[in-house]
Amino acid sequence: ASQEEGRRCHQTLASLKLELAERMEEADALEGKLKSLRGRLHQTNADLEVKEDQLQELKKQNEVQQEMLEDTQKKLMTFVSQSEGTVDKTLLRRLFVGSFQAADAERQEALRLMASTLGIREDQLRQLRSREPA
């Protein structure tokens, strides 16, 4: 009976050793997966930091471009407001002098061009012509 008991203990012990070896293999496999996942996590975090740096750089570039755009818009508006109402005096002088020297049809065209340049509407010009002495 004691030999039988010893054999059963020996078989149980062998079975436990086999199960322990299987569990150790599983633990090693899980440890390998864990190391792999940690490596991937580290690489992903490094990639994320690079992307965040790139995003910050793009935001800075966007701000600079926005400032440049606003500055250009201000300069354009200043230029438009300063040049508004500016007349090409040389052109106007030639038209004026030419209107006195030209035939009647050409004179009427010169007056129309001057009126257009000065922002006088066509109906206003006709009204002025009607008052003109023959």
Automatic annotation (TrEMBL):
GO cellular component terms, semicolon-separated: Golgi apparatus
The keyword Coiled coil is annotated on this UniProt entry: yes
Molecular function terms, GO-annotated: small GTPase binding
Subcellular location: Golgi apparatus
Record's keyword terms, sorted: Coiled coil, Golgi apparatus, Receptor
Domain of life: Eukaryota
Transmembrane segments: none
The UniProt record lists the keyword Transmembrane: no
An individual GO BP term: Golgi organization
Coiled coil regions in record: 13-75
Protein name from the UniProt record: Thyroid hormone receptor interactor 11
Gene name of the encoded protein: H0YJ97
